[in-house]
From TrEMBL:
This is Branched-chain amino acid transport system ATP-binding protein. Residues 7-248 form the ABC transporter domain. The lineage of its organism: Bacteria, Pseudomonadati, Pseudomonadota, Gammaproteobacteria, Oceanospirillales. Gene3D superfamilies: P-loop containing nucleotide triphosphate hydrolases. PROSITE patterns: ABC_TRANSPORTER_2. It comes from the Bacteria. InterPro entries: AAA+_ATPase, ABC_AA/LPS_Transport, ABC_transporter-like_ATP-bd, P-loop_NTPase.
Amino acid sequence: MSDEPILATHGLTRRFGGLVAVNNVDFDVTPGEIHAILGPNGAGKSTLINLLSGEISPSEGQVLFHGKPIQGKSVRQIARMGIGRSHQKTNIFPRLNCLQNCELAGRIHMGGVFGSWRSRQRAQKVSERALDVLETCHLAHRAYTPAADMSYGEQRQLQIAMVLATAPSLMLLDEPMAGMGREETVQVTELLESLTDRYTLVLIEHDMDSVFRLADRITVMVDGCVLESGPTDQIRASEKVRDVYLGRHHEEATA
Ligand SMILES: Nc1ncnc2c1ncn2[C@@H]1O[C@H](COP(=O)(O)OP(=O)(O)OP(=O)(O)O)[C@@H](O)[C@H]1O
Ligand SMILES: [Mg+2]
């Protein structure tokens, strides 16, 4: 596989009034890797993802996907280019069943009207893919269960399935394990591990065990800036990271 970045940012900056949420960030993702973003609350992780998916525009700097700027493209256009994302808060249609949720995600991504013969064929493909991703996410037995009737952990898994349903080449996952118990966290970690040979992932996650197990590289953000970025072993051994992030995280966790 080529080591040319699939995605890169240069001097990426986003201000909200006087606050610099993302400050001059250079970040890249190479094909096939899991690149985790760590950082305390308010570090700018979600804002970075929002910039990568085009949900917000940079104040300065740029995002390149396969070497081309995404600036000026709509969220839907960027999704069609192959960037799929999940949100920190669960974002599903509670009354629809799992299959319908995945079909809807796939359809939105493909766009178009589903009336003609060709579009019926496309709809068929979307349905097949939806079943396929439910299988991948261990939710096939829940295909016809309304999302609202599932456990929180299953809903978070469905969220991942919905991203997969859009057939992304790059997945941006914002805290997929947020609010999960230990057992569910391990389950989702295993699910993400099973995706590693087929997908490139940017993963925001607070669960250290999962991050250290899954990530090839880690970028640590503090106050909008990159504190350190490198292979997982480097970050695990970094005193700077331990002092500034792990120390603070530990204090938060034990406060
Ligand atoms: N739309 C917005 N308007 C104003 N301020 C914002 C907005 N979005 C984010 N911020 C601020 O930017 C900073 C970074 O927020 P962000 O959500 O990116 O942090 P985070 O690292 O994802 O934190 P968490 O771990 O709590 O999810 C915070 O101070 C936040 O209050
Ligand atoms: Mg966040």
